[in-house]
Every structure is written in structure tokens, then in C-alpha cells.
Design a protein that fits this description.
alpha/beta; five-stranded parallel β-sheet; elongated; 14 helices; 5 strands
Length: about 325
């Protein structure tokens, strides 16, 4: 009997789940997608559906709950979020609000203040907030609303940084020459655009290869501490390298998870010592240079240089061996 109990305990530890009968599995991780009509999925399948599919594919014991509401401003989000938090008691809440503020003349300061209230309410309710950039808007005859990338989103990212919560840059991944492929009216995403939103949020969720403890939307704790800002170009370069290369395969995801686990206390120590920050900036230069070369398509050149250096070292060691003999 004791052996059976021990075996059962080991199975629980190995699988991370236990059932009390077939209809009572361990409680799922609850993820709420909170926002306006873009979140609700106006005109297309919402990203919450694609996010659920991706989490299922990764064997994540999670349920995604869509709480998008058409035409909502950030003020409406503040007024509604307590009800949503009380109803679902989510572990994570993905907040993507502000598109209607930017298109209706509400100031970025007001919008970000409301977003800060939503973040605080989420934390007080025991949910981990993840905040998103406002997505592009070209509904006015194809003319882009420049307030979004130049005024609103920098302030939203600064808010995430100040609150030490993840920031998902859903603007940059959609904006540009391919935007027309992701939207059907210049504001709302089609299925392709919604799928991209899901993939971006997936990166910072459990089972998605990322971590939600990303210190303001990047996870580059040590680089951010050394350079002093998440927006500093060297930090941005390292984040792009992480997203474009490390998070695209399992070994890289494992290394990122390891980094997220052990680097925060080191970063905190670095941030408190100016001389150490300067030293770390120098030490990061080779990594920044490597990231730059990889992002700009110089991967084959790096491979040739590495092989050449390895061959030279091996050749010198071989000559040294025979001379010594």
C-alpha cells in the first residue's frame, strides 16, 4: 500500500496534475484577454481562440477567456475591470486598451493613467497583468494615426517598465508595409493579424517559451540595469535577437527561462553600482555586436569566422604538439 501511495505521489510530481474522478481535473490556469473590439474579435476570429490553440498544442493546462468589448475606451476598461476580475479570478490578464482613446481625441496621459489603474486593480485582485501596445490604425483613408507610435505607445511601455510588468509590442510586429495584409479596415485585424497577436502574447505566458516576470516587457534584466533603460538601443537589439532567434527553438527557450530565473537579483545589484554598470556595458559589447550581425543577416559570415578561428587554434596546437615531441 505504501509503495502504491509513493508511486502515485511520484506521478503527480512528474505530471504536475492530479484528478479527483474524471470530471474534476486540477484547476486550469485562467487567462483573460481584456480590451476593446480588437480583443473581442470584431470581424474575425479573436486572438484568444488562436492563443488557446497554441497553449493546447504546448500541453499547457490553461483556459483563455475573452472579455473584449466593442468601442471601449480606457475609462470604460477601468469601470469594467473589477467585475471581470471578480467573475473569472484570472491568474493572468492581457490588457490591450487605448485604440479608441487615440482615435477619439482622448489624451495619452489620460489613457495611460487609466491603464495604470487597470494594472493596479489586477494586481490587487491577484492577477498578473500583461500590457500591450496599441495596434496600428490607418482607417482614415490609409493615413496612419501617428499618435499611436509616437505618443501613446512609448508612454504605455514606460508604464510597463515602471510597474515591472511585461510589455508586448503588438504595434511593431504589425506596422509597416505588410499592415494591409493583417487588417480588413485599417483598424481591426483579420485572422492573420489576430494570429500574430496570439503568438506575441504567447511568448510571455506559461508554456509559451517565455516568462511573465520580464521586468517591463523584455526580460533583458542585466542589459536594462547596465544601460539604464528598456528603450536604450543596445537593449532593444538584444531583445530583438532573443525574439528572432532564441525563442524560435526549444534550446533557446530553455536558456531564456534559465536567464529569467537567475538574472533578476544580479541585475538589481548591478543597477545600484555605477562603476559596475559601466563595466557590464563593456562586457556586453561582444554580445550586442553578435546580436547586430545575426539580426542583419551576417550569420553565415560569423560561422566562417568561427570555423577559421577554430581551425587556426587547432593548427597551432598541432604544430606545438609535434615541436614538443
Amino acid at each position: 500500500m505504501a509503495k502504491k501511495l509513493l508511486l502515485g505521489a511520484l506521478i503527480v510530481l512528474m505530471t504536475g496534475s492530479i484528478s479527483v474522478g474524471a470530471d474534476n481535473p486540477v484547476e486550469k490556469i485562467r487567462i483573460v484577454t481584456f480590451g476593446d473590439s480588437i480583443t473581442r474579435g470584431f470581424g474575425s476570429t479573436p486572438y484568444s481562440v488562436y492563443l488557446q490553440q497554441a497553449l493546447n498544442a504546448n500541453s499547457c493546462n490553461a483556459v483563455v477567456i475573452n472579455e473584449g468589448k466593442d468601442a471601449e475606451t480606457t475609462l470604460g476598461g477601468v469601470e469594467r475591470i473589477n467585475q471581470v476580475l471578480a467573475k473569472h479570478r484570472p491568474n493572468y490578464i492581457l490588457i490591450m486598451e487605448g485604440a479608441n482613446d487615440a482615435r477619439s481625441g482622448i489624451s495619452s496621459g489620460t489613457a495611460v493613467g487609466n491603464l495604470a489603474l487597470m494594472v493596479d486593480k489586477s494586481v490587487n485582485a491577484g492577477a498578473k497583468p500583461i500590457i500591450s501596445a496599441i495596434t496600428p490604425n490607418t482607417e482614415a483613408g490609409g493615413v496612419e494615426n501617428r499618435l499611436i507610435p509616437e505618443d501613446f505607445n512609448p508612454k504605455i511601455q514606460a508604464l510597463a517598465n515602471s510597474k515591472s510588468i511585461p510589455y508586448v509590442d503588438n504595434y511593431s510586429v504589425l506596422a509597416g508595409p505588410n499592415w494591409d495584409e493583417y487588417t480588413f479596415d485599417g483598424l481591426h485585424m483579420n485572422e492573420l493579424g489576430q494570429n500574430i497577436l496570439a503568438q506575441e502574447f504567447l511568448k510571455v505566458l506559461p508554456c509559451g517559451g517565455g516568462s511573465t516576470d520580464s521586468g517591463g516587457g523584455g526580460g533583458c534584466f542585466i542589459a536594462t540595469a547596465a544601460y539604464g533603460s528598456l528603450l536604450e538601443p543596445h537593449v532593444t537589439m538584444l531583445r530583438r535577437f532573443r525574439d528572432s532567434y532564441l525563442l524560435t527553438h526549444r534550446p533557446g527557450q530553455i536558456s531564456v527561462d534559465f536567464y529569467y530565473t537567475y538574472s533578476p537579483p544580479i541585475a538589481d545589484f548591478i543597477a545600484q553600482h555605477d562603476n559596475l554598470r559601466a563595466l557590464v556595458r563593456v562586457m556586453l559589447w561582444p554580445l550586442v555586436a553578435f546580436a547586430y550581425l545575426m539580426i542583419h543577416g551576417y550569420g553565415p559570415l560569423l560561422a566562417v569566422l568561427f570555423l577559421s578561428a577554430a581551425t587556426l587554434i587547432l593548427w597551432r596546437k598541432t604544430i606545438g604538439f609535434f615541436r614538443g615531441a
